[in-house]
Amino acid sequence: MKAEIMTSPQHPVNPPPAGLDKKTSAILSYVLGWLTGIVFLFVGKNDPDVKFHASQSIIFFGAVTVLNVVLSIVGSFLGVLGIIFSLVSLVVGVFALVIWIMAMVQANNTGGVRAELPIVGKYIAPYADQLANSVK
User: Fold this and answer.
1) Of 67, 91, 93, 96, which sits with the fewest C-beta atoms within 10 Å of its C-beta?
2) Rounded to a whole number, what is the distance in angstroms from the first to the last CA of the chain?
């Protein structure tokens, strides 16, 4: 008995967004932080995994951006004590850089399948789900 080889092409259940595969879309949703997150939230609206990665990108990097703006504004009013706020902003920036790299590596390693962000994912995932599910 010989095993039969399937000759008909198999099509993915959900078509890839903008001609990109799931893995590439997941990685690209993190490349420019919340900006590419917004793009891939709508471009990848047919793939729940891509929407989840995009939502995480928007929430995490959006929060980092807002926190850094607030730290800058408050620090500017405090004169010499503002140096402390600048240092905190630097630490937040380095932390965001580490998460950014880890997120893209994780999206690559999982093939774009839904995965929480390293370190902060358990806090962000519920909000990312809500945002991803709100886009139809």
Assistant:
1) 91
2) 48
Angle between helices 34-43 and 48-77 (to 10 degrees): 150
Collapsed DSSP state (helix, strand, coil) of residue 46 = coil
CA distances from 15 to 45, 63, 103 (A): 10, 31, 23
Half-sphere exposure of 72 (CA within 13 A, CB side): 8
126 contact partners, CB below 8 Å, separation of at least 6: none
How far apart are the C-alpha atoms of 136 and 132, rounded to whole Å?
A: 8
Phi/psi for 45 (5° steps) reads -65, -15
The three-state secondary structure class of 8 is: coil
Contact, 28 vs 36, CB < 8 A?
A: yes
Per residue in 74-106, pLDDT (tens digit) is 988 888 888 999 999 999 999 999 999 999 999
Residue 111 has pLDDT above 60, yes or no: yes
Do 60 and 120 form a contact (C-beta atoms < 8 A)? yes
3-state secondary structure of 32: coil
What are the tokens at 120? 């902060």
